[in-house]
Amino acid sequence: MSLSQWTAVDNYYNNLLLPEDEILEHVRQSAIDAELPPIAVSDAFGKYLEMMVKISGAKRILEIGTLAGFSTICMARALPEDGKLITMEYEQKNAGVSRANFKQAGLEDKIELRQGAALESLKDLIAENPEPFDFVFIDADKENIANYLELSLKLSRKGTIIITDNVVRDGEVIDMNSEDEMVKGVQKGNEFISKQSGVSSTTIQTVGEKGYDGFLLTVVE
Ligand code: DHB
Ligand code: MG
């Protein structure tokens, strides 16, 4: 089993199930043009996020890590008329690319991008005492996953769904001697969530065009 086979299967299913999407293709191209790292979610996972938002009936979404706004647009387009998404991005360049993409997608009224370190943006947001979020997607620097989980829980309510991306990393997550800061960040996040009361979690491993990884699904009880 190899990346080429996983990619071929992704292509097979995407051709069958995912309609051509000019907006998302534009987002992908904008990321290439701006030379952003190719680490956005796959088309299939983007569709999965869109469907999760729809199934859950989420009206308020929080995203940590915007990049070029691919996952942001997938989720925001599933929101109802009065829905809102706040997305947080550290890099000014990425924020600029994303804002242009939100406009192009006609979603600029539903999406608010807060540029800066997400730890600060989250603390500011908590201080605003907003309505709780229904759905959270954590997909930023892996070193801070535990912090992002902890702060997201302060912005949650019973039933809030939290999805954390990239928690398997080619299986390296089980190497407790790993020197990789991303792997160590994932392990710290796992330690945090496993000890947290009032939440229920599971991890699903994934393979596909982005390799071997997985996501953590958490629901607040
Ligand atoms: C990386 C980050 C991601 O969010 C992802 O989905 C894949 C890779 C990374 O930083 O390497
Ligand atoms: Mg990711």
Description:
There is one protein chain. Helix 4 links the parallel strand 1 and strand 2. The model has no long low-confidence stretch (mean pLDDT 98). With 221 residues, this protein is of the alpha/beta class. It has a single domain (3-220), classed as Vaccinia Virus protein VP39 (Rossmann fold). It has helices at residues 3-17, 22-33, 43-56, 70-76, 92-104, 118-127, 145-154, 181-195; strands at 60-64, 84-89, 111-115, 135-138, 161-165, 199-208, 211-220. Helix 2 (22-33) runs antiparallel to helix 5, helix 3 packs parallel to helix 4 and helix 6 (118-127) packs parallel to helix 7. The chain has 8 helices and 7 strands. Strands 3-2-1-4-5-7-6 form a 7-stranded mixed β-sheet, with helices on both faces. Helix content is 43%, strand content 20%. Bound molecules: 3,4-dihydroxybenzoic acid (DHB) and magnesium ion (MG). 3,4-dihydroxybenzoic acid binds at residues 39, 139, 165-166. 3,4-dihydroxybenzoic acid binds next to loops.
Name the features:
221 residues; alpha/beta; Rossmann fold; seven-stranded mixed beta sheet; 7 strands; globular; binds 3,4-dihydroxybenzoic acid; binds magnesium ion
